Amino acid sequence: MFFVNSRAIIERYVNNEIEIVVQDRNKPGAPKKIELPGARIEMYESLTAALRREVKEETGLDVYEIEGEESRIDTSDSSTDFVVECVKPFAAYQTTMGPIDSVGYYFRCKADGELLNNGDDSADVRWVSVNHLANLMNKDPLLFSDVDRAGIKYYLKEHGKTI
User: Fold this and answer.
1) pLDDT of residue 20
2) Confidence at 110, pLDDT banded by 50, 70, 90
3) Which of 44, 58, 59, 156 has its CA 20 to 30 A from that of 11?
4) DSSP 60
5) Beta strand 38-40 with 62-66: parallel, antiparallel or unpaired?
6) Residue 117: what pLDDT?
7) How far apart are CA 20 and CA 154, in angstroms?
8) Domain extents for the chain?
9) For residues 52, 55, 58 and 59, what is the CA-based torsion angle, rounded to 10 degrees?
10) 56 vs 14, 112, 128, 138, CA distance in Å?
11) Per-residue confidence (pLDDT) for residue 145, from 0 to 100
12) Are 123 and 141 in contact (CB under 8 A)?
């Protein structure tokens, strides 16, 4: 099986500090892990539509801005039988070993609304500061989901954090 995922790095600024949304995922037979909102896209669903849907289902938030979406183009103006979109993500990942073969795209975005305590397969949805996130990653990187560990490290590196 092969999956394509769309994942959200939802940012906000509070007291001159960046915070992002994380959540806990407790998969059957596996330890609880910290992860970013997002999941598989559905057949013929756009990456940004999947991002908005998953963020709403898992966190209760409504995405109103996706970095890079302004560069989005599609071919719907030239064909109605075969449409392709191109959009610029913040980062892309590919699993190169492990039980699940997947690629995914991280989008930095902004959202509003009230956080759910528990969303669709998620729990303890919360805002955390980038500094706290870096401390958690340095303390124990295995606290984070296998899929998001590299994406979070990439994000932290972009913010000048040493991991």
Assistant:
1) 98
2) very high
3) 44
4) -
5) unpaired
6) 83
7) 14
8) 2-158
9) -130
10) 22, 10, 18, 30
11) 94
12) no
Close Cβ partners of 72 (under 8 Å, ≥ 6 residues apart): 48, 85, 86, 87, 88
pLDDT in tens, 45-91: 999 999 999 999 999 999 999 999 999 999 989 988 899 999 999 99
Mean pLDDT across 109-130: 91
Residues in the chain, total: 163
Reading the block at residue 131, the tokens are 């500094």
The reported pLDDT for the residue numbered 123 is 87
Q: How far is CA 161 from CA 52, 127, 134, 153, 155, in A?
A: 28, 18, 7, 9, 9
> Which of these, 8, 4, 3, 2, lies nearest to 148 by C-alpha position?
8
Measured between alpha carbons, how far apart are the two ends of the chain, in Å? 32
